[in-house]
Amino acid sequence: MWSSDAFSSGTLTLEDLASYNATVTDAWDFHLGEYQMYIPPPPAGGIILSLILNILKGYGLKSESLTGQQKILAYHRYAEAFKFVSGLKKHIRDPNFMFLNALYFSQMVRKFIEDSFADHIRSLISSDKARDPQHYNISSYLESMGTSHVSVLAEDGSAVSVTSTINHIFGSGVFSPRTGVILNNELCDFCGRVDDIYPGNQINMTFCFCPSAFVVLAGEQPPSSMAPAVLKSQSKMLVIGSSGGDMITTGIASTLMNHLWFGKSLKDAIDTPVIYSPLLFSLQNVIAALKYMRHNRTAAEDFYNVVNAVEKEDGCICAVSDARKEGQASGY
């Protein structure tokens, strides 16, 4: 059944399917306050999430940061951090295919989770205004929205955070009529990649790697925003992840910022309106102030990002699924 559909108008072969092997890699981890946070390594989006959080944690955010002018400054810095991190996405690729620069690439991507790199980017963020796009060296990316996520905490204490995707909505828009399987279009994640650096780039490129020519190799996994994560401390565990394509890392970072630093409950943290670059927070006073600081605001017609999380603290379990897409948590 499958072969007659999949091979009728493509280059896929039975040998391709027979020789495919799933790659099992160890999670990367870094300190985030009292937690040890575990994230998937490149080419997944874990290091993007870690960099956003490391930049923000240097500002010492707390519940008082949501009062008065501190609130405007907090969201301004939040938006600026996302812009800088977006500018670095193009440097992430499958480490298994960095044959000529494997050691250098490994050292470079490890810097994404180091405090020193976050300190460097934080030093480039102005506290009183946003800048033009070339300042952040932001690359264009096609947004992918065909993603789902589930966070699980079992009674034996094990935790699983899983994100799966067929990339865009309904993947390639092609399905196998015999099997009903919708085919993905994951190769689109290679689109929009650029090799050159914007003139006047402000990022210190000693931290980064830019290949002289970007060539997609057979078997290479495309870069992804998927960032399922587990946070563990002496007495707490938080399992979190999100769907939403390019919005994944900002959605998770927003939830963690609101929960861990602003002191909101897990439900309130997930329910809080999410800021994306260049999309901005919906409260009118915040929007007006950020516009004054030269941020551009565009209202999203659709909402695709969905954060799901489950947390255990002192024997109590709290599970929350994003209600903006009719999500509900379940217990068994």
From TrEMBL:
InterPro entries: GGT_CS, GGT_lsub, GGT_peptidase, GGT_ssub_C, Ntn_hydrolases_N. The active site is at residue 147. Signal peptide: none annotated. One of its GO terms (biological process) is leukotriene D4 biosynthetic process. L-glutamate binds at residues 165-167, 189, 224-225, 245. GO terms for cellular component: plasma membrane. GO terms for molecular function: glutathione hydrolase activity; leukotriene-C(4) hydrolase. Belongs to the gamma-glutamyltransferase family. This is Gamma-glutamyltransferase 5a. It comes from Lates calcarifer.
